[in-house]
Amino acid sequence: MSSEIAKQAEARRTFAIISHPDAGKTTLTEKLLLLGGAIRMAGQVKAKGENRRAHSDWMKIEQARGISVTTSVMTFEYEGATFNLLDTPGHEDFSEDTYRTLTAVDSAIMVIDAAKGIEAQTRKLFEVCRLRDIPIITFVNKMDREGREVFEILDEVAEALALDTVPMVWPVGGGGTFKGCYDLVREEMIPFTGEDSYGTPVKAELLGDELPNLIPGDLYDTLLEEADLAMDAYPDFDLESYREGHLTPVYFGSALKSFGVKQLLDAVLQFAPAPKAQPAEPREVEPSDSKVSGFVFKVQANMDPKHRDRIAFMRICSGKFKRGMKLHQIGTGKSMSIHNPIMFFAQNRELAEEAWPGDIIGIPNHGTLRVGDSMTEGENIRFSGIPSFAPEILQRVRLDDPLKAKHLSKALESLAEEGVTQVFRPVIGASYIVGVVGQLQLEVLLSRIEQEYGINVGFESAPFVTARWVTSDDAAAMKHFLDRNKGSLADDRDGCPVYMARNHWDMGRIQEDNPKLNFTATRER
Ligand code: GDP
Q1: How far is the C-alpha of 414 from the C-alpha of 417, rounded, in Å?
Q2: Whole-number mean pLDDT of the chain?
Q3: Is the keyword GTP-binding in the record (predicted)?
Q4: Quick one: average pLDDT of 315-328?
Q5: What domain count does the chain have?
Q6: Which end of the chain has the smaller Cβ count within 10 Å, N or C?
Q7: Binding-site residues, please?
């Protein structure tokens, strides 16, 4: 059995695409799904989004802002392997959600715009990948438009991200003169015709006759010259170094024209790691372990307005999951039989009869499952590394109708479970304080409290600018601190103490004055 599990795990690639808004993530996703046969016609990723929007009220914000705020998982097959693509919300205010999604992938594709290079959001997301040593394949997009010099882009990636870059293909021309890419490894030319096409490679030795049609003379000379320089300037591709997160292979193309997308997906198939051992307490979990285990990295409500329950997204880390199986939620002692696990294909959700390490299943539930939960067949294993982040905006929740206090508490608790917000209960005072990473998250929160729970609330500024979780090995020092700072303390939804600072100076002073305490900006569940 475990050899079958290992074989299935080996055939899986679970990955995400990281990019700055507008670099072309949606377009690339669509072309990958097309290539995997998961959708038939271009335009369906967006069309589906619009359809969803039309049915769902809270996504009005999404519509008004023209952004995508939901995370989804899409599964497709290609060349005998199963690909699980985890979509990450592109807007910077949703970084917390995005960061958590990155805990559930084994590798990432980084898309950059050939004209813009590394942008703010790419850099932030890259840092998260680096924290977890997630290997990255780079795709330089929009080669059909005027962009920067190829050397300049490669050097920027190398410098900005402190990463070895290895061009796997070399673009010929760019913008209006873009003629395709020369595959430096396979030694073949992939001509770009301007049509929407994955491109048909032509072996270098056959280029003789075709050459004048494919590459005009001057561009050919430039290619020879640049390819020569590139061979000297950049290291050879090294699989181990890529998998350790030190090196990124770089591909060039045009997602809009599907060009280069096949080379990219082939690279994911060939180089990207299959699911590997996951860090957990008290022991690492190997995918080939015979018992099923997994962790919840996202909870989402209201995906289908007709069904009001929520879906917990669980990454399977080991074993063969079968529908109907009973799993234990570590920490609460609860167990649940998973009768309706869902797998997500581009156009529909289907019941998952079985799932393997690396797969993501959606578990419908009524709020039992929370982000960070570990699930096993019984063994007490906790997956580590799913963080909460210190909020950058703290606001007091003002309730218009005091009779609805209990109702509000439930609403906030639910939304916190989904990771829409963090909720803090001040030690002194009655009103809740919500913490978010960005302004837009606050708008989503307000709109959902009103529309889904029918409660009118407002937010008013809390006198705090930031929060830190407080821990200590020294119980006496901890108690002393908690007793003396009640006015600035709150409990998070797990009852862990949080210090809320009025300004950054105060935060610094408190840390200096209490050397026996740890103040952390993230907390792992
Ligand atoms: P996202 O915000 O990263 O998901 O970006 P989109 O996929 O929505 O693309 C942003 C814009 O860039 C859209 O207008 C796309 O049509 C356009 N775009 C995406 N890829 C390419 C490309 O390869 N070439 C050109 N010229 N435009 C592109």
Answers
A1: 5
A2: 85
A3: yes
A4: 96
A5: 3
A6: N
A7: 19-26, 87-91, 141-144
